[in-house]
Every structure is written in C-alpha cells, then in structure tokens.
Amino acid sequence: MNERQADGRLRVLLVDDHSLMRLGLASVIRGETDMEVCGEAGTGREAIALFRRLRPDVTLMDLRLSDQSGAETTRSIRGEFPDARILVISTFAADEDVYTAISAGALGYVLKTVESDELVTIIRKVAQGQRHIPPEIGARLADRIPRSELTARERLVLALLVRGRRNRQIAEELGISEGTVKVHVSNIMLKLGVSDRTEAATVAIERGLVHLG
C-alpha cells in the first residue's frame, strides 16, 4: 500500500452508485482531521481503476453496483492488491451478503444505518488491518463455517496467537513470511466469526481449539 499523506491523514476511496450516499459519506470523512476522501467511484470498474491509481488506505465499498457487485469488485482488487483494506457498507444485513463480502476479502461489514462516529472508528480500525464484523453477524457466520475447516497451518498460527505471539514472531517460529501470517490470521478470524485477535483467542479456548498449559 502507499504511504499515508505526509500529514498522516488516512486516504479513503468511496465506492457507491448513489451520488447522494457518496456525498454523505464524504461529509462524514471530511469532518475528521485525520482523514480525507481521495476519490469516488460509481461502478465496480471505476473503483478498480481508481484503486490502481490512488492506492487508498481504506476503501468503502457498496455491495450493489450497476455493473458488477461490490463483492466481485472487492475480489478483483484484493486479487491484484492483497493488502487492500476494504470495508463494505451496505443497506443489507442478509447472511449471504455478509458471507460473500467477507469471503471476497473485505475486512469489515457495516450497515448504512451506522452512526457517523462509529463509522469513522471502524474506518480507523480497518486501516490498521483489523477486522470488523458486528457480533450478531459474526455469530451467524461462525455457524456457517465449521471449525473443522481450519487447516493444520491455521491451527498452528492460532495456537501461537493465543499465546500472545505477534505476526512477526509467528512468522519466525513457523518459518514463513509475515504477509503469509497475516493471511492466515485473517482466514482464522473469518472462520471463527470474530473481529479481532482477542476474540479469536477467547473463542479458540472456549471451543477447545487450543489448550493452554
């Protein structure tokens, strides 16, 4: 990803096919001293082209676009830029929509009814590479993705995560790159239906996926 602005502001790309929605989001973001809107797109193809040119810190992605879905657009961007940090903001809370978006590589999912102060907090969280999935949605996702789907390598990463290891330490202990560890951690959070490392550790212990001692 590109470095942040010299003044440290987060660069946010808005993707929504309704100009009024983009206007509202832009107003919220421009009200924050540590953020700026670096670009706006109304279609999936425009979003991909703008991402290539602008390399934003965070992309706010609508699920319903005129030419292709937000999930397809997210998958395309993440396929080309694995570190892309995309937050889906949608009118819909259906499990299938959430599952599709997260599976495509989005780091988070929020509804358009979210309060503005909560939204900017979530944007900052996603900018740091953290997941955000509302707890009630995360619980339903966990039911869809059985824990048996955790791979052997993911279980090793999870065990080290529970023991407080950071990504770099996990990479060193397993002899893999830090980037690969980030991918494993992201997949683990998706499969466990959690939003952050602390939740992942708690769920892992509660479900008996990792035993301390």
Q: If you had to describe this structure to a student in words, what would you say it looks like?
A:
By secondary structure, the protein is of the alpha/beta class. It folds into two domains: 10-140, Response regulator (Rossmann fold); 147-206, Winged helix-like DNA-binding domain superfamily/Winged helix DNA-binding domain (Arc Repressor Mutant, subunit A, Orthogonal Bundle). It contains ten helices and five strands; from the N terminus they run βαβαβαβαβαααααα. It has helices at 19-30, 44-54, 70-80, 95-104, 116-127, 135-144, 152-162, 167-174, 178-192, 197-206; strands at residues 10-15, 35-41, 58-61, 86-90, 108-111. A five-stranded parallel sheet has the order 2-1-3-4-5, sandwiched between helices. It is globular, with a radius of gyration of 17 Å. The model has no long low-confidence stretch (mean pLDDT 86).
Condensed summary:
This protein has 213 residues and is α/β, with parallel strands linked by helices. Helices cover 52% and strands 12% of the residues. It has 2 domains: 10-140, Rossmann fold; 147-206, Winged helix-like DNA-binding domain superfamily/Winged helix DNA-binding domain (Arc Repressor Mutant, subunit A, Orthogonal Bundle), CATH 1.10.10.10.
